[in-house]
Amino acid sequence: MNSVYTQPVQDLIDELGRLPGIGPKSAQRIAFHLLKVPEQDAVRLAHAITEAKRRVQFCETCFNISESSQCELCADDRRDVSMICVVEEPKDIVAVEKTQEYRGRYHVLQGAINPIEGIGPDQLRVRELLERIRDEAVKEIILCTNPNIEGEATAMYLARLLSPVGVTVTRIASGLPVGGDLEYADELTLGRALEGRRAVEAG
Amino acid sequence: MGQSRDGADPVSLYSDHGIVLRTYKLGEADRIVVLLTRDHGKVRAVAKGVRKTRSKFGSRLEPCSHIAVQLYSGRGELDIVTQVESIDHFRPIREDLDRLRRAVTLLEAVDQVAQDREPSPRLYQMLLGALRTLAAQNPPLVVAGFFWKLLALEGFAPVLDQCASCGSSGPLVAFDLDHGGVLCASCRRGGPISADALDLLRLILGGKLGQALEEPEGLAATELEGIATRALEATLERRLRSAGLLDA
Asked: What is the pTM of this model?
């Protein structure tokens, strides 16, 4: 079928349609919105995209996204170097940082083991993690992968790999979300919450 | 929801039991789950909001879960998950990498074999049985046993007692899918098969699967799993991606 749009518009729709979560209809809506806005707004968007692509790279140590070869978290001397929190994606670092409970370093695997998709440990930054444990004064590794089947498989794999290395390996706890109802909790989560119960200190 | 449209399909909500074969991320917080159901065959359905921590579905829709599920059949190809209750979440499988590896291999194979909305109670029972066995005791031959049974279900029954090519009963040393069974030394083609592995295969396909599952870990078990995987891959005409990926 021949395109009904002029070529530049069709190109824009095609490019937008490649973005995650954008279908052909949304792509068309965004394209027409962009054609309508003042030129400087559109240029600003284009500039933001090219700048982000040009200036952002992966941290050489932890593989977080970063503006230089060392990300801010790795360059920060005040952070505890004896702990590494292992996460799947850079956005997971943001989630952990928001808790303000963790002051150690991170390591981004850039994915999780997913046997059905054919993603194994070799496609992840596992070797780099081992090198860091060897070179840095690491005492504890926190496995902070998602509590789904891929994340659990990754955590189990790493736990087995790291057991002879001589560092403490911990896994984040599973439990009930604060503000939720017990009756809606699924059996696996509730079971783990019970298993991980702790003594309540009076007062 | 639930009201009939055009009177064409008045019953659009249905309940079934199923096993989650795999999931795909969809959009911001949703997933597409692929279920092997008892009465409706393989069903693809959207589970809205499962990736949020406060999802009412929680862990129930993770691969390998055995669930009672209510689905809404819309106009599209994908149904929508409305309610889920867990029957068994096979916790021993989730907490052991080796069992998990085996379970995922089974799920992938079933996903390839099962047909959309084509009920196969036999396949459903086989998978459920295999997962229960895996959770209970993790026998080394569970994947090989399942694959051979799966091939048998697909209509492939290899010749095991004589050479599939010349009919001689001499030492049988090779296995070839195209010839439909084992071959003697002079007709040998395909891959080699050891006498121990052949004995195990005879047990599995001779209705003595229980006995085969009690066999200890060994070279013959590994060998038979390899032959089964290649045979299944040849039948499906595609690679099983999870096979061998996590072998340490």
From this structure: 0.83
